[in-house]
Amino acid sequence: MNKDILRLYLIASSASFKNPLKDLETAFNAGVTCFQLREKGADIKRGQVLTDFAREVKKLCSRYNVTFIINDDVKLAEAVEADGIHIGQDDINPDMLPEYFNNKIIGLSVGNLTELKSSSLARVSYLGIGPVFSTLSKSDAGEAIGTDGLRELVNHTELPTTAIGGITEKNYKECLKNGADGICVISAITGSDNIEQTVTALLQ
After folding, report:
1. φ, ψ (nearest 5 deg) of residue 103
2. Is 136 within any annotated ligand binding site?
3. For residue 164, what is the domain's CATH number?
4. Contact (CB, 8 A) for 86 and 71
5. Among 10, 23, 84, 201, which residue's beta carbon has the most beta carbons within 10 A?
6. Which pLDDT score, from 0 to 100, does residue 142 have?
């Protein structure tokens, strides 16, 4: 895969924004390169309502040339013909994903060398490494590994990498300096009062 896709990777649910489709379009237009729909947490959509929403998001992604990833939900990713899927250490083994994903992007979360070395990477396209900094956006994120931990993992893989966890306008450059090909953000954009301005700043 083209590692440039990972440069500014937004993760959000339908409940992350006041006006999700409008706010996502603002973010995409400003330069977000990849979007992961992670429909977890409070006030989320389910069933056909979620599928319909995901299809609308896919249309936006296509319009702005943004790569569209689904978090963990194999059936939803197939139903909306997403560009790929992202899975965690406790989700489905990458080797067990259906044939649909043979030519799709498969992302895998890793937080330390043990996870990296024990993961089956034959079908994995990129690694999401972290949490680099402390984060409240994901309750299951684990202990922050810092930029030293990020650099260690980057140096032990040939796969493209994106850093995740507590990343802001103030610290994102440290992730890039320590070898990550891109950054994943959640609250930095979903909690921004000026999405366009924040996206622009994160792309500097």
Report:
1. -115, 20
2. yes
3. 3.20.20.70
4. yes
5. 10
6. 74
